[in-house]
């Protein structure tokens, strides 16, 4: 299932997120599947959805979870939407080595 959360791009990999702002905690809380079967990583943040605060918080959450610099993650779509696409810039094979095990861990709790 983890391979459906990410897509290859010409600059690395992208992952889809479903963000809940103004939540009680900052965390990756699981996997969301919409009515069309599209899967996204569920991320909750205590930040407000205004002036990019939630986006910055989401990047910080991803950075902490995956142990990568904040600059490694870039919102490429959905800047003002709860559904976002994040670019992980770099070698696809290197990214997959650390991303796929982490996604499997998230999926299986």
Structure in words:
- The chain has 109 residues and is an alpha+beta fold.
- It is 28% helix and 35% strand.
- It is built from two helices and six strands; from the N terminus they run ββββαββα.
- It has helices at 53-66, 92-107, and strands at 6-9, 12-20, 27-33, 39-44, 73-77, 83-89.
- The longest helix is centred in the C-terminal third of the chain and has 16 residues, at 92-107.
CATH architecture: 2-Layer Sandwich
What ranges have pLDDT less than 50 throughout 5 or more consecutive residues? none
N-to-C terminal Cα separation, in Å?
Answer: 14 Å
* Name of the level-1 CATH class: Alpha Beta
Classification by helices and strands: alpha+beta
Assembly state here?
A: single chain
Tally the helices. 2
Relative helix content: 25-40%
Envelope shape: globular
* Average pLDDT level: 92
The main β sheet shows up as:
6 strands, mixed
CATH T-level topology: Conserved Hypothetical Protein Mth637, Chain: A
CATH superfamily: YggU-like
Domain tally: 1
Query: SSE string, helix = H, strand = E?
Result: EEEEHEEH
Which band does the percent of strand residues land in? 25-35%
Number of DSSP strand runs: 6
* Global Rg: 13 Å
